[in-house]
Specification:
This protein has helices at about 10-45, 50-60, 65-75, 85-110, 115-125, 130-160, 170-180, 185-215, 215-225. It is mainly α. The N and C termini lie far apart (about 65 Å). GO terms for molecular function: transmembrane transporter activity.
């Protein structure tokens, strides 16, 4: 049977809608994961109760399969009176697991900061909040942003599991179209392209953010070469 993408034409709107839904749930999930990873990474550096709690959270979410977490949120929580629809279950699940994996990256970036930098900030009279927001996080994220990008790409790939909780994202839609058209090769070729496009978009965004965070270093190198 020859390869023929025209068989997808009647289903193209549904497939594109599924891809758009995947992009939306992943975008919100990544935003939540970044915020949670930052908070957990900051907490995990210390030895207080907050630090121990943060490390426990990371251990739990890193050692439980993502599909189990999704099923617990979507099917388990209603048993205790907590109802979350499929879309927000996906966003929450991606944010929670992404925050766990991303927190180790942020924590490593913080630990890599020279102690003298923080001490100088304290001597200058900056408050603890100002030191964290103006000194610690900007420096840590310069080195952590690329590894965080790998975490975010994995979140996009993991989002395919969300089709198992009735979310009509691109994988679930593609599966339905394949069963209807009996042309799985063309349908899953589209699916491959969709995920490649989504992950490439995340990579481009991370590279742009990396350049922005490290622009002063790039400028210094360029000036040094010119000299």
């Amino acid at each position: 049977m020859p390869f023929d993408l025209t068989v997808l034409t009647p289903h193209l709107d549904a497939l594109l809608a599924g891809a758009a839904l995947t992009a939306e749930v992943c975008g919100l999930g990544i935003a939540g994961a970044f915020a949670l990873a930052t908070m957990l990474g900051l907490a995990a550096v210390g030895e207080s109760w907050a630090g121990r709690l943060a490390r426990l959270y990371v251990d739990v979410f890193r050692n439980v399969p993502f599909v189990v977490q999704v099923f617990f949120l979507f099917y388990g929580l209603p048993e205790v009176g907590v109802y979350i629809d499929a879309f927000w279950t996906g966003v929450l699940a991606l944010g929670l697991v992404g925050g766990a994996y991303g927190s180790d990256v942020v924590r490593s970036g913080i630990l890599a900061i020279e102690p003298g930098v923080v001490e100088a900030a304290k001597v200058s009279g900056l408050s603890r909040l100002a030191i964290i927001s103006r000194v610690v996080l900007p420096i840590a994220l310069r080195t952590a942003i690329r590894p965080l990008g790998s975490v975010f790409v994995n979140l996009v790939l993991s989002s395919s599991i969300l089709s198992m909780i009735t979310l009509d994202e691109v994988t679930g839609t593609a599966r339905g179209v394949a069963s209807e058209t009996y042309r799985p090769f063309e349908v899953y070729a589209f699916l491959l392209a969709a995920y490649a496009g989504l992950t490439y978009a995340v990579s481009l965004a991370i590279n742009a953010l990396h350049r922005r965070l490290n622009r002063h270093m790039m400028t210094s190198r360029t000036a040094g070469k010119g000299a």
